[in-house]
Amino acid sequence: MAQSRQSSHLPRNLVIGALLLIVLYSLAGFLVLPWWLKRTLPDQMEQHMGWQADVADIRSNPFALSVEALNLSAQDSNNEKVVGFDRLYINLSFFELIQGVVGFEAIELEEPFIRLDLLEDYSVNFARDFQAVSAGEGGKSTEPEEDQAPPSLYFQQFTISGGELLFRDFTQPEMAEFRITPLDLTLSDLATWQRDDRNSDYHLQAALGNQTIEWQGNLSITPLYSSGNLAISGVDHKTLGHFLAPYLPYDLRGGKVTVRSDYELQAADILYLSTSNGRLSVEDLAVAPGKQSDQPRLTTASIAIDDIGFDLNAREARVGQITLEQPDIMLARNKAGEIDWVAALDAFAKNGGKSEADTEESATAATERPFRWSLAGIKVSGGRVLWQDQQPASPAELSLEQLSFSTAGISSEMEDPVSYQLETALAGGGKLSLNGQLTPQPFTLEAAISGSDILLAAFEPYLQESANLAVAGGTLGLDGNLDLDGQQEPLTGTFSGTAEVSGLNLQLPGSNERLISWQTLRLAPIEYNVHPARLEIGTVTLARPAINLVRNANSVHNIEKIIRQSEAADTSTPPQQDASDDAPFIFRVGQLMIEKGVLDYTDRALDPVFTTSLDQLNGSVTGLSNVSPQQGKVSLKGRVGGSASVEVDGTIGTLGTKETSTLKLTMKDLSLPALSPYLGRYLGYGIDSGKLGLDLDYEVTGSQINASNRVVMDRLGLGQAIVSKDAVNAPVKLGLALLRDSNGVIEVNLPISGDLDSPDFRVGQVVMRTFVNLLAKAATSPFSVLGSIVDLAGLSGEELGQVSFEPGTARLAPGEAEKLAVLADALLERPDLLLNIRGGVSPSADGLVLLRDELAAEGGQLSEQDWEEAREAYLAGERSLAPEVLNNLASARGASMQEILRDTHAVPASQLFMLDPSRNAEVSGDGNVIVGFTLDLR
Q1: Could you say which DSSP state residue 557 is in?
Q2: Closest to 929 (Cα-Cα) out of 920, 820, 891
Q3: Among 258, 344, 763, 918, which is most buried by a count of CB atoms within 10 Å?
């Protein structure tokens, strides 16, 4: 019975025991566990991290297998909040537990907070705090066992909502703070063991202001595998600039970056990573070369890169088309020659340096198989490039606008030709385009170049580096093909095409006067070879060229001012020839055609100012070259002073050599009054009338010149006298009259020679001096000039200016009559000349003859003794002739010469004038009495 009673109490005891266990389990789950967790959790944080933590409340439900913690907050040793959350809810799965798996039906974390500090040594605050506590306790670090399998965990649903991540970076001079909020994460169906049938799904969203991250896909822990899509949107320039500062030499001023890509990651025996369908876009990018720049110098409306893909195992990257819209880049060069972008890069490289780790990585990479990449192409539209140059004396600014550029695909092999096309317009005017193909390795380039209406004034500062010129107008056009080949050293290549400069107008800086201009200069065809250097131009056509040559009051020509003073001072030092040049530069021009050329000349050093012009210049110069044997030909025609014709013909030897060049210039009917300022300076008289003709023959060998200058002046008439210090000190009118023939023509030949390299030798000045010297000689030695002109058949000019008479008579000595005949011809050819005849006697020579005749007439036969006594008495002045005897003889001799010239040779009496006889005439060596003439001008 006792046993029956005991059996009847067993169910009750079991129930009571079960109830008691339930009560104890409930008490432990509802009361003890929260109390223990609330006490233990802060202690564990302090023990392992050194943090002071506080939890407002912890609740647990042992029947639901859930724990809920509210308002956790932890501060580090600096009393700064490091982690926290508003609510953490964990719900275990009973059915997973009975299968030996720690399964979580739900983990919910609401409004968590994490402060992550990146310290100066690139460690993080969590590791610092943990290591500080571990070092203080002398604890041993534990390393995980290799090949240890992860515990069996299962997460049915894991969510984070309203999270906040505060990231602070102390690695740079100024601390930067980034607050990522909200941070939301959803993770479902995640297991730590291998499952072949399914993977976990996840979705992460985070925001840093307007910058967002969205990451979604699926995940497997064993083996580690993930695939999905990552999108980072609206990352602004401040965020990028902070993280890229150690690697970027420039200063980001603006821009937003968006990047998205599909990916696949797997970690087993090898790591596999690949991305696909990637896209990178940058909006409103703004970059400056450095923080010192006042404004961004690189901006773009947008940059887009499509179809980005990467395969780590294949070591391959694929990039679709790169598109840039409205890029605007400004480049500046300072006076020291430094370009702002390059200078910033150099400074960054000097301050940066390469670490040993980088060197080791490079060495390791060199042993691996090469990395391959490909780019579908580049497209640029609406671009602008502004070049600002402070190095020239006058700052230069060039702007390429409406820039468009595109290329075909490029790959890492670099062996396939890449086609390209570029089009742009210059801000000042003009268009330029290039298209062709480029092979990077080995380097080859094919380019079709076309340019039109390119304004040359934009390049004036660079022209002034070598020449003192201002470009008042002019455009450049060109069209051709450029081919370069770098497969072998040295680089070779050719350019074939045409070029044209239109409407050129060059002036001296600060002057409004035209200096050099032309309508068009066309070069076609042009053939240029890079190596060996050779330039060949078929035809150079110069239409309506005009040169305004001015000699200023200081005797300096305006064209001399083109050469800068520094360059003029350096001409004494010859340029050094590069010894590496194997072959000299070759230059050839088939023909130079000149159409309607004009040369205006003004000389302001003269008073009055001299002006003239050479216009209607037409002709050609053919066969110019610096390679022997080569002989060019010159054939030019023009007009001087509006009426005189001028022709230039000849040959030109090989340029740069000492081969002989010959030139012949012929000019007719130039009005002499136009040359009055020049001629009057040396003659002392203005020119009132006349015409000038020239026949010039020049022969130039090297720098030596030999020239024959035939000058013809027709009816030269002098005007008023001019006061000039350079005027010849001689009777100019008489000299001109002597040079002038019966037709009023003066014809002289003025040969000259000299060294053109000599600074004291000037052709025009030498010719003028030669003519003036001839004129002075004519005026001071008139009969010598007549002799040379009339050709006296062996007589000298001095002999022509005098005749000899037999002593004591009015008879000409033998042969003297021919002189009068020649003199008569000269007078007849020069009606303006007057001959002054002065009869003369010699008291000794003529007196003795007359005395002897007188004695013979008085006494008949005269003995030698009587004559000797009479002669001595006459010479001693003891005996004399009648006063009229010598006077009559002198007058008779003058009358005799006048009669011969007038009656025998028909010289007009108006040209013959008798002067008072001379009584001290000279006696020649043969005993004849010499009577001279003088010439005068009417």
Answers
A1: B
A2: 920
A3: 344
**pTM (2 decimals)?**
0.77
Distances (CA, A) of 870 to 373, 386, 857: 137, 116, 14
Radius of gyration from C-alpha coordinates of the chain: 57
Q: Report phi then psi at 463, rounded to 5.
A: -65, -40
Q: How far is CA 513 from CA 46, 162, 506, 518, 555, in A?
A: 91, 79, 9, 14, 18
Dihedral class, residue 142 (left if φ above 0, else alpha if ψ from -120 to 50, else beta) = beta
What is the average pLDDT across 176-182? 91
| Percent over 90 (pLDDT), the chain | 38
DSSP conformational letter for 904: I
Which of the 8 DSSP states describes residue 409? -
For every residue of 415-433, which 3-state class applies, written as one string? CCCEEEEEEEEECCCCEEE
DSSP notation for 510-533: T--SEEEEEEEEEEEEEEEETTTT
The angle subtended at Cα 86 by Cα 81 and Cα 88, nearest 5°, is: 110
User: 826, 926 in Cβ contact below 8 A?
Assistant: no
pLDDT of residue 350 exceeding 90, the answer is no
Question: Which neighbouring-strand residues pair with 528?
Answer: 495, 535
Q: Can you tell me the distance from the alpha carbon of 938 to that of 936, in angstroms, rounded to the nearest whole number?
A: 7
d(CA 836, CA 933): 6
Cβ contact 87:68 at 8 Å: yes
Q: What b/e sequence results for 468-503 when a residue is b if at least 16 CB atoms lie within 10 Å of its CB, and e otherwise?
A: ebbbbebbbbbbbebebbbeeeeeebebebbbbbbe
Q: Which of 711, 709, 542 is nearest to 621 (CA)?
A: 542
Give me 371's structure tokens.
């990395």
Cα dihedral 823, 829, 834, 839, rounded to 10, equals 20
Give the CA dihedral 110, 115, 116, 117, nearest 10 degrees.
Answer: 170
| Secondary structure element (H or E) that encloses residue 324, with its range | strand 316-325
Q: Which residues of 630-657 are buried (b: 16+ CB within 10 A; e: fewer)?
A: bbbebebebbbbeebebebebebbbbee
Q: How far, in Å, CA of 27 to CA of 850, rounded?
A: 188
pLDDT of residue 359: 45
